[in-house]
Amino acid sequence: MTADTLAASGSGRRGVNYARLLRTALPAISLAIILIGIAYLNPRAISYFGFNLMLNLAIPITLATIAQMFVITINELDLSIGNFVGFVGCVTATWLHDAPLIGISVLVLSVVIYAALGALIHIRNLPSIVVTLGMSFVWQGLAILILPKPGGAAPDWLQSFMGFQPPYVPFPILAAIVIALVMHFGLMRSSYGAVLRGAGGNGQAINRAGWSLLKTKIVMFGLAGVFGVISGMALIGITTSGDANIGNGYTLLSIAGVILGGGEFVGGRVSPIGAVIGSLTLALAASPLLTFMHVPPDWDVGANGIILIVVLAARALTGRKAD
Amino acid sequence: MPVAAKNIIELDGVERHFGAVRALDGVNFAVRRGECIGLVGHNGAGKSTLMHILAGTGIADRGSVTVNGELQATYSVQRAQRLGIRCVFQELSLCPNLSVAENTRISHVSLRGIGWAKRAASLITKRLDEIFPGHGIEAGDIIGDLPIGKRQMVEVARAFTLTDDPLQLVILDEPTSSLDAHAAGQLLSFVRRSVAEGMSCILISHLLGEILDTSDRIVVMRDGKVVADGASSQFDRERLIETMGGAEARDATAAIAETPVSENAPVMVSARPAVQQGGTELLAREGEIVGLAGLAGHGQTRLLIDVFRASTRRQAGVSVAAPVALVAGDRQTDGVFPLWSIADNIGIRSLKGLRRGLFIAAEREKELAHSWQKRIGIRTPDMDNNILSLSGGNQQKALFARALGSDARIVLMDDPMRGVDVATKLEVYDLIRAEARAGRTFLWYTTETEELSNCDRVYVFRNGRIVAALDRSELTEERVIQSSFEEAAP
């Protein structure tokens, strides 16, 4: 073959890459648009304290989004993550505060249950939506048993950790960067990460190459459990007390964050950096932007949904261009 | 290797059952060091099952597997890999969401730790360069973005990459089904070189020419048994077809001399590729079979899609005079609806005609499916079975039935015979010719030069342009290959 053919195929590839670049940049672009909107409406919000306030609740949302991302990577969906975060919150505000040993063992056990759910879903070939929907009631019920009415207290070390104020960079932004980088190297660049993502792309191929699909499901659901636990703890560290319903909105927020960040429901295509940016976008669009726009709180959820639709529509458009 | 046993792998009396079906019925099979075995047989003869057992992805119900002279009590994929036995499956086993390098890592446990990505990239790039010089694939490319031919190159090259484990035997199942003649030639000559260096290969192909030219020994399977086993020199095309059974022994290349379609027949399709310079355009008259040839991925599929689009909306440079249907070649991606029955899969292109009021008339859909089951010979007990219950060749027949059963007067075919056995092919060729005589127009892109002999006229593509138009009388394999490398025609 001649250089000519190479050039032809090369130019074809460049076209694809351009479209993919646009897709990859879309989460960042939507975040920038939201930030510009906020800066225009209220320039003082763009400051150290402003970000600290606005992104106050972004860390737990980001962590829950990462948990969801693990599950979506292997073509499953976790509808229980919000209630699980609430359950972890209740454990953190009660047992972890009063009897740390019990608290820790309960949290470890809950991660084991998550991993076991992954095994169950794989072995019995069950739809994860059904299993996790069922589990969401289990987690919520347990949370209400532990903490029938809002209360409890966060462990002091957790409060002071979440209240950490690093110089120059607001803590939520620093945390988001750390989470994004750790996840990127862990899932996108590590050698086992390739196997885990491959399990979502073509499970049979992974199986034929001699890897255990069961193990990938256990690992991914286990990781989702771990990040669910960290998310719940971070949430309590910020709010300082617990409530069984505290994480209810997180299920949909986490799914939206993954999709907003360029992930897809099937095919193992996810982006940890995108997911982190997606969750920040949602956290900012959720209340600060709307408050500055003087949108009445009654319209919060609806406005949120519209933002989501606009961004996803933009993604669908760039996706079509890639064809 | 301490002891160089004569046979790399030996199967003795292997049986495998799926329900009542005996996929393998007492097979004895051995692969010697440094030989290339051609494995032939119709779809369903048991080749794939045999291959799965060799690769460790399937377990024998009865019989023994011996590798390097050691009896294998528990044989698995991991064990096969450790012993240096690899397999390239017909349905590609790559993860579309991963890059070429990451897919290489999937098949090598030892590619880990710092710098694994670089090592994987150089490993696969080196092999690709060696097997398919000028392949134009980069290690960072995502598999899903590559056309099917390049994906197949990656899959094949990956099987030949070497890390800690030895490499003794590579099983290639239809490795050239999506490769053009040029790349297929590159692969087969690489196979010969590897075999000369002491490796062994099993080559499964429906292209008997490939088998006869490349292998040292040919094994013929029929109904789950080995029915013939001998040096390639003992076989020729007729003898192979005869031994495989089923199809009447007939030369697939023999085109039936037909009266050419009159110059005055109405033009059904005229199309100029988007990047074409000058006035060359593709013309297809009523009742003609027009071939699209050239190296894979040089704009043939693109043109078919443009023609397809032109049937529903304006498309620059393309005009179409009648309804169009497309027969996809990439069955899994573009063809079948995997969750639907065979009948539903056939009826989908004809829903307008199957309607009663707002609803689909179930009995009319059934009727359509049954009449095509008879005409095209889809082998199934029940057309309401899931489409995936059919073998690959029969799935493809269902896709043909979908197009031919519709109101389309123009049928586009995107290399539809990938991995289809000879008997099915011959049946479909006859059907296409009969349909063409009845006034249908066919545009047929194929990577198999033999098939072009069914065409009235062939357009050769290069870099998205038509570089040659050959009439049936001028058509030879050399002309097509030569034109494939020519620059744009004046």
Overall description:
The complex is a heterodimer of chains A (323) and B (490). Chain A contains 16 helices and no strands. Chain A is mainly alpha-helical and 323 residues long. In chain B, 32% of the residues lie in helices and 23% in strands. Chain B contains 16 helices and 21 strands. Chain B has helices at 47-55, 77-82, 100-106, 116-131, 148-159, 181-196, 208-214, 237-244, 300-310, 331-335, 342-347, 351-354, 362-376, 392-404, 422-437, 477-484; strands spanning 7-18, 21-32, 36-40, 62-67, 70-72, 85-88, 169-173, 200-204, 217-222, 225-231, 267-271, 282-285, 289-294, 318-320, 324-327, 355-356, 359-360, 410-414, 441-445, 457-462, 465-471. Chain B has a six-stranded mixed β-sheet, with helices on both faces. In chain B, strands 15-18-19-13-20-21 form a six-stranded mixed β-sheet, sandwiched between helices. In chain B, strands 2-1-4-5 form a four-stranded antiparallel β-sheet, with helices on one face. In chain B, a hairpin with a 2-residue loop joins strand 4 (62-67) and strand 5. In chain B, helix 3 (100-106) packs across helix 4 (116-131). The chains are: A mainly alpha (323), B alpha/beta (490). At the A-B interface, helix 1, helix 10 and helix 11 of A face helix 2 and helix 3 of B.
